[in-house]
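Supplementary Note 3. Input sequence used for the single-chain structure prediction.
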Amino acid sequence: MTGSALTSLRDLAARGIPFALIARDGATVEVLTGDVVDVDLLADIPLHDDAGSPREVLALVPFRQVRERGFECHDDRAPLRCLVVTEHTAVSRDAALAELPTDPVPLADAGFDIADEEYADIVRTVIADEIGRGEGANFVIRRDFTAAVDADPTLAALTWFRALLEFERGAYWTFAVVTPGHVAVGASPEAHVSAQQGVVTMNPISGTFRHPAGGATPEALTDFLESTKETEELFMVVDEELKMMSAVCSDGGRITGPHLKEMSRLTHTEYVLRGRSRLDPRDILRETMFAPTVTGSPMQNACTVITRHERTPRGYYSGVAALFTPRTDAATDVPSHDLDAPILIRTAYLVDGRLRVPVGATLVRHSDPYGEVGETHGKAAGVLGAIGAIARDPSTKLAASDPAGASVAQTEAIDEDAPAAEPRRLADDPAIASLLASRNGRLASFWLEPQGSDSGPFDGRSAIVVDAEDRFTTMLAHQLRHLGLDARIVPWNEVTDADVDGAELVVSGPGPGDPRDPASPRLRRMREVVARRRASGRPLLAVCLSHQILADSLGIDLAPLAAPHQGLQKTVDVFGEPASIGFYNTFTARVPAGTSVIGDTEIAADASTGAVYALRGPGYASVQGHLESILSRDGMTTLERLVSHALEPVAS
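The predicted structure, written as discrete structure tokens, is reproduced below.
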């Protein structure tokens, strides 16, 4: 540290200045001090001074920033708080542990704001009324552990940070951010998004294995890794984050993994996604607000569902801590700053003497209400143990010589073709490694392998993709480009009749909701798009929700499924060829069993139930599944077949 800098981390409390402590490499603690500036929009984050020189900024981004994307939320006016860094130094982890305070911080009136049974009722309601009615595949609903704290906020922050540094392992960031009137201390396991030298990385983590008494064993972990619910939960969030990657990266993104994220009381499964982008890092952050692992999918409707079922604003929970660091090279064709942004989870907040530790569970069609209650307890335990709210597990203490290292997302090389970091601990077990690797056998090779240039059988052709509030359209457009089409995405509320009439191919996309709903402006417009295009006789491809709308226009009945197909992989017959496809639907078109033709429309349907998987007729084709999903192993070949049919000239 320089002569004007702190002589000890304890001086932070005495000097009363804004600061941040960040441990992210397993060996050092970074110390950031500077000035606090609150701004309204991500674009306002002050990455340059008045003279235009780049500067380092740590921004706490609250959940309410989703309003920038037009999404709903309970608005608590939490500021987008920026620490404009004037000094950035580092001390060793061992030195930090020696300097930071250890005296316990007393808590009073501690407990969850929502009782266990009440939270279980919320889980049942979301499964029945949201997932069961087609509003989405999964949703994260939070509850808060709260307590009164009668202690100096800065001393409390330093004490809790030290405890997390000592007792929690496997975190992506362990951090403390202290600014006027606000303290945030956490050990986030999950990198939301980073951008380094033009390479964007996302790190979806999902599936939660709570360690049994005495610690985790390969035998106990095996049951977790074989769980259908836990596996599908991870696949769904990878799909959701690939939507974001496809929006910000020209190459769409490639996935590596799965890996284990091993922490003190929990183990998660994770993938790493990478792609290349030339966007400003603030734009990357905006387009990826926020992680589906803490919101749900599809993202826009997940925010609406959260607003319906969470009674209070989220504050910074599920937002990000975004560190913008000026680049050291002088390249002009890439952003001027690198970005490192972990998700604000497993974090304690202290405001006006009140502690709050928000935690949430991912609710899917297979969820057990009491299992999700237990998951919230497990997720809170690492932070609560560190701050003294519950008993610590002595086995979780980390030796100074074994800080557990960095996460996979931090240690994997930027080169997207470089091998993954060596697995640790439980992942060293051959049976565990084999179980993890076997998961990729279910996935589409398109997203696992390096992707070639945008050249294909439809070179020189063009398409518009109408987005019905499900950003699967970004993945779909990316695949269409790889088939050679010049594909442009247009939101449902911006697509004009001229767009619908003039496009060479219209791809009417997926979205949440009941396709029969007469009150929804979005669904009315999607019905208009499908009807107008079909009436014109010009090429149309309809996907999922739009497939149901097309079926309805052909006189085929629509009905809810007995059990939603959210994140379900099935092998189905698509006009004589078996195809492994991922499904995200609550409603289905249905014909009498054995029906294969209605008028001039061919029907691919389940032989026993009559559930319609695909349609094709003069100038149009449709599919119920998501060919763009990682679950669609035969997605690209099936997409090419259906597009080829739609583009065939219609006999006069």
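Residues 1-5, 398-424 have pLDDT under 50 and may be disordered. The chain has two domains: 11-442, 452-647.
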